[in-house]
Amino acid sequence: MGAMESVLSRPVSRPGIYALCRAFGNVCKLRIGSTIAFTALAGIAVTPGPALAGWQIAVLGLAVLISAAAAGGFNQYMERDLDAAMRRTCNRPFVNGTLAHGPVWLWALAGMLGVSVAATAWATNVTAAVYVFLGAFFYGVVYTVWLKRRTSMNIVIGGLAGSFAIMAGASAVTPEPHALPLLFALVLFLWTPSHFWSFAIAMHDDYARARVPMLPVLIGDRAAARTVLINTLMLVTASVMPFWFGLGAVYLAAALTGGAVFLYANLRMLRNPCRGTAMASFHASLLQLTLVLSGAMLDVHLMPPIA
Question: Which of 86, 105, 93, 90 is nearest to 29 (CA)?
Answer without folding.
Answer: 93
